[in-house]
Design brief:
It is a single chain. The protein is α/β, with parallel strands linked by helices and 378 residues long. It folds into three domains: 136 residues, Rossmann fold; 158 residues, Rossmann fold, CATH 3.40.50; 51 residues, no CATH class. It is built from 16 helices and 13 strands. α7 packs across α12. The longest helix has 19 residues. The two termini are 39 Å apart.
Length: 378
């Protein structure tokens, strides 16, 4: 693909919307409830609102916003642990920008920075690696955060640090995986989901087969999708076709980018550096088995948890949310952002109560960015 314009073509979008309407009417004739399709990825949520797809789509279809924002699902206790590391003498703590303002139980990283902690925004773990090379007398810590999309770059940085003997570099590992929380949602009796739009950038790394259990065990369709408006519309139509035909399969709409079996180089780096945690806490979902990664013992010299004695202990888990904040319900699709009583009132981008208003992939941020005061009024 050389240009994105072909995936934003109005004529193509109108044709897809018409096909979606026809298929939704066919399905709706046999049921009395909306068709619930969850877009797992926060990037998809922002695209839906940026292009107004939620307003253009057939009224019988409802998009449910899923837990595909890694900053948003991070529990408050882990933010507190970031601050604890960052405030130690001699530490340079590095992080992606959208994690800076996420509230912890005590404070955010940006507040800790304003109080004197040496916290720096970086665009890649390689930036943190370079800081470690230039500051051999300082401990440089990278906040490893994200789904399978960002995990390979962190793994490759740890491998490079090991080759160079940069033992003043370490990673505070909070990498998580996508398939496990989907299973948790499907096991929730209060969730009514008819199909999924899967995150294309995650499947660039892992391929499409880690989602096979969704079709096999739960009889729900999932279509891995790109991020342009016609990508999302075509993926929605593909989900509807499966529902209409009474079948469930894992399909790849984003084949121009996503290989069926993923990226072997990235997968090899992940397997070498990381292993599964027995469980990991997700904001809004609680503890989910084998949904988080930790650094293998062979790379223990680069594990900030080991280096600073910050263990993932039970005492640090399940820190309660700020009173009035409904991030958990919004994150799991049980509530729309505008249904939160704090949206646009006690929680704004300038003074956020929760991560969903801060992150570039948060559902609340999407509502605010593309609807603003109108969404708050609604």
């Amino acid at each position: 693909m050389k240009f994105a314009s072909e995936f934003r073509d109005p004529a193509a979008a109108r044709a897809l919307l018409a096909a979606i309407a026809t298929k939704a009417d066919e399905i709706g004739a046999t049921r009395q409830k909306p068709i619930h399709i969850m877009e797992i990825c926060g990037g998809h949520t922002h695209s839906i609102f940026r292009y107004g797809l939620d307003k253009l789509i057939h009224e019988g279809i409802e998009f449910i916003h899923g837990p595909g924002c890694p900053v948003c699902v991070l529990p408050m206790a882990r933010v507190d642990e970031c601050v604890e590391i960052a405030e130690r003498p001699g530490v340079i703590f590095t992080t992606f920008g959208d994690a800076m303002r996420v509230p912890g139980h005590k404070k955010s990283l940006i507040r800790a920075k304003s109080e004197g902690a040496d916290i720096r925004m970086v665009y890649s773990p390689l930036d943190a690696l370079e800081l470690a090379r230039r500051n051999r007398d300082r401990e440089v810590v990278f906040f490893g955060l994200g789904f399978e999309t960002t995990t390979p770059s962190t793994a490759l940085s740890i491998q490079q640090a090991a080759r160079e003997g940069l033992t003043n570099f370490s990673v505070f590992c909070n990498h998580i995986t996508v398939p496990e929380p989907i299973k948790a949602l499907l096991d929730d009796p209060d969730m009514t989901l008819d199909g999924f739009i899967g995150p294309g950038h995650v499947s660039m790394v892992i391929g499409i087969h880690p989602y096979d259990f969704i079709a096999r065990d739960y009889r729900k369709p999932l279509v891995v999708a790109g991020f342009e408006p016609t990508d999302l519309l075509q993926s929605t139509l593909m989900v509807l076709v499966q529902i209409g035909e009474g079948r469930a399969a894992i399909e790849n709409q984003y084949a121009r980018v996503v290989p069926e079996h993923g990226n072997p180089v990235s997968l090899a780096a992940i397997a070498d550096v990381y292993e599964r945690r027995p469980s990991f806490e997700w904001r809004g979902l609680g503890e989910i088995d084998a949904s988080g990664l930790r650094i293998r013992r062979k790379y223990g010299a680069f594990d900030a948890e080991e280096k600073f004695g910050i263990g993932y202990a039970a005492s640090s888990r399940n820190v309660p949310e700020i009173e009035g904040c409904a991030c958990g319900a919004v994150m799991t699709g049980k509530m729309k952002p505008t249904q939160c009583p704090q949206f646009g009132i006690g929680c704004t981008p300038e003074m956020p109560l929760g991560a969903l208003m801060v992150s570039s992939e948060g559902a609340c941020a999407a509502y605010w960015q593309y609807a603003g005061a109108r969404a708050a009024a609604e």
